[in-house]
């Protein structure tokens, strides 16, 4: 691979050797993904969590055993920081993105590679489609609540979600676009 598009592994090795520009490239490549994961703790906290995740990653990058697996490793750090933030805030007022019945949205760590891949694809979507997927699927909001948060009609929201799901299906190599969005 040429220097214009180095692999994650190359950037990780260069960062561990003291190249700050290499880490800046990793940040540029994955900041949107980390913000998506961090959004589960609430939109107002996402930016702070993102900074904390990258600071932790930078400080411990030399401990990463497989440099090519930077993205799943980074998502793992992001999940931990989100859980810590939720735990810290439970003694305070509830986070705005908590589910109505009080259950915190916990992530299943099985299939972390698949989840990281899917989140990386979601992070590549246009902003409004990414937010629709995040609210509807990742945060478990219903169609009406997602539409309200996006400032769209319910039918417009479902059209947006359907378009985003179709794009994700194409990117994943599906033979045909995804079916209807659940109501």
Automatic annotation (TrEMBL):
Keywords recorded for this protein, A-Z: Sigma factor, Transcription, Transcription regulation
InterPro entries referenced in this protein's UniProt entry, alphabetically:
RNA_pol_sigma-70-like, RNA_pol_sigma-70_dom, RNA_pol_sigma70_r2, RNA_pol_sigma70_r4_t2, RNA_pol_sigma_r2, RNA_pol_sigma_r3/r4-like, WH-like_DNA-bd_sf
RNA polymerase sigma factor 70 region 4 type domain mapped to chain residues? 118-165
One MF annotation (Gene Ontology) recorded for this entry: DNA binding
What superkingdom does the record give?
Bacteria
Q: Looking at the keywords, is DNA-binding present?
A: no
Q: Which GO terms describe its biological process?
A: DNA-templated transcription initiation
Q: Which residues form the RNA polymerase sigma-70 region domain?
A: 26-90
Which Pfam families does the entry link to? Sigma70_r2, Sigma70_r4_2
Family designation? Belongs to the sigma-70 factor family. ECF subfamily.
Protein's UniProt name:
Sigma-70 family RNA polymerase sigma factor
What organism is listed for this UniProt entry?
Gemmata obscuriglobus
């Amino acid at each position: 691979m040429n220097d214009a598009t180095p692999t994650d592994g190359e950037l990780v090795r260069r960062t561990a050797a003291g190249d700050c520009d290499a880490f800046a490239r990793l940040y540029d490549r994955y900041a949107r993904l980390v913000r998506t994961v961090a959004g589960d703790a609430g939109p107002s906290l996402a930016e702070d969590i993102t900074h904390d995740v990258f600071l932790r990653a930078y400080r411990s990058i030399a401990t990463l055993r497989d440099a090519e697996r930077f993205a799943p490793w980074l998502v793992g750090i992001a999940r931990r920081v989100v859980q810590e933030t939720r735990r810290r805030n439970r003694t305070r007022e509830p986070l705005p993105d908590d589910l109505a019945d009080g259950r915190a949205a916990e992530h299943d760590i099985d299939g972390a590679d698949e989840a990281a891949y899917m989140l990386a694809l979601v992070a590549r979507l246009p902003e409004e489609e990414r937010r629709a997927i995040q609210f509807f699927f990742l945060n478990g909001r219903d169609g009406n609540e997602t539409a309200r948060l996006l400032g769209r009609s319910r039918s417009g929201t479902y059209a947006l979600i359907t378009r985003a799901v179709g794009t994700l299906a194409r990117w994943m190599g599906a033979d045909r676009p995804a079916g209807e969005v659940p109501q």
